[in-house]
Amino acid sequence: MKIGIAMMSHETNTFSPVITDLDRFSGGHGEPLRGDTALNTYRGTASCLGGYIEVAEQHDVAIEMGIAAAAPPSGPVEDDAFEYMCAAIVELSGRVDALLLDLHGAMTTKSFDDGEGELLRRIRADNPALPIAISLDMHANITELMVSNCDVLTGYHTYPHIDMDSTAVRGARAFFAMLQGAAKPVLRWGNAPMLPHVMRQGTDDEPNASLQARAIALEQAGCLGISVFTGFPHADIYDAGFSVVAMTEGDSEDAQGYVNELLTSAWEAREDFVYEVEPLPESMQRAQAAASAAGDGPVIVLDHYDNTASGGTMDTTEVLSAVLEAGLERVAVFGFYDPEVVAQMTAAGVGATVTVELGGKLPMPALAEQSKPITLTGEVKLISNGKFQAQVAMARGLTINMGTSAVLSVGSVDIAIISRHIEPYDPECFRSLGMEPLAYDYVMLKSRIHYRVGFRDLAKEVIECAGCGVCTSDYSQLTFDKVRRPVYPLDQDGGGANEAWQIPGT
Ligand SMILES: [Zn+2]
User: Fold this and answer.
1) Alpha-carbon span 15 to 18, nearest angstrom
2) pLDDT digits (tens, 9 = 90+) for 260-296
3) Against a cut of 0.90, is the pTM above it?
4) For a 10 Å CB count at each end of the chain, is N or C smaller?
5) Residue 317 vs residues 56, 336, 372, 410, 415: alpha-carbon distances, Å
6) Distance from Cα 138 to the centre of ligand 1, integer Å
7) Spacing, Cα 470 to ligand 1 middle (Å)
8) Ligand 1 center to residue 180 CA distance, Å?
9) Within the chain, what is the greatest distance between any pair of CA atoms?
10) Ligand 1 midpoint to CA 160 (Å)
11) Phi/psi of residue 160, each to 5°?
């Protein structure tokens, strides 16, 4: 038996102007890795592919590694990139007996609102009986097209996502049991008309902590997989939002019961998924008070309207401007995506004094406001190729590529400026650029929840700052045209409990 393994992973922020072309899926390699190069890159890493490879290699099967394409979150995927990836995976599916796919679950393309559903539809159109397992991010927006075109489906239980590999292991074990005739997975799913705020989705916090704990308890009691998807709200597609997929051994009534139970629990807790925004001046005052209070570690200034891992441009300047105007000192900033400024600093060389127009460059037509560049004069502290090995539980073992990177020192404020978008969840992003986060009084991060993996335990306090960006935590700044209505909290009456669930086939 030959098993195919492949990845096509992207979380699409339909409000983001950041272009999602094939290069963005390549990790800086020119085109996405495939074959043995991909196999060797991902084997043993804390990733879904790492989990799939681990289980597949425990079985007496041949493995063909197909394309391994993942792009940081950004705008809708370009059609030629999507067609390239789909063609590669559909071709692979014709050469194998079963397929393990790492898909994010919130991919929107220029032509398809449901990129993963379209991929799976094409695979099954050519190979109707091909067994398929998929693993999905907790931010997946689930569709009927996805669920009806696979046999095994598992999703993360953690946000920050530190269980990608175990999610794939859980799915692959159920999948091999099915292939060997030892299991008959049944999938049922449903969604609730609600868009939980990403800032309220962390699994250290309620209500998601309890929802995921219940899913894990059901798995430990024998369910093949219970996946609670908080969904990705910055995707203006019909099916965006909260959903649950249950996978049980042969019993659809059990599966449906678990779906209904978890949807009901989430719906009852919907107010706790709403995020209250604090005005930026108040956040700055709290940051200064926290820095002067007793305790160890830097104060984290969290610029959560502009994080890469939700499709941010990573170049809005409002929070940095507030930091500078408030006179905060000994600040480490990660970071700004601005290849033009990196090129200018590289040309000037380490030690040179430069005046740059930083950030505010990418137009954000989805918002009423536009960030503007800020003029900064400082010293070029360091130039780097921008590569480091991830050290934390998320992506451990993978090489992270920030592109050519530079550090600009403006007084005691050190700003990391990069040429490829990455999310700052691993302190190594600073350390690889000669900055020790513990040596600063403040660490400013363009992140929402993922920073918790590597930074929260270092921090004295975390101050969430409302800046500007397409990951805005204020839904009123966005125009939703396609998402199903009513939906909470865009509509206060998002439909009654139970009657509101969209449960296919019922
Ligand atoms: Zn996610």
Assistant:
1) 9
2) 999 999 999 999 999 999 999 999 999 999 999 999 9
3) yes
4) C
5) 46, 9, 7, 15, 12
6) 5
7) 16
8) 32
9) 69
10) 8
11) -55, 150
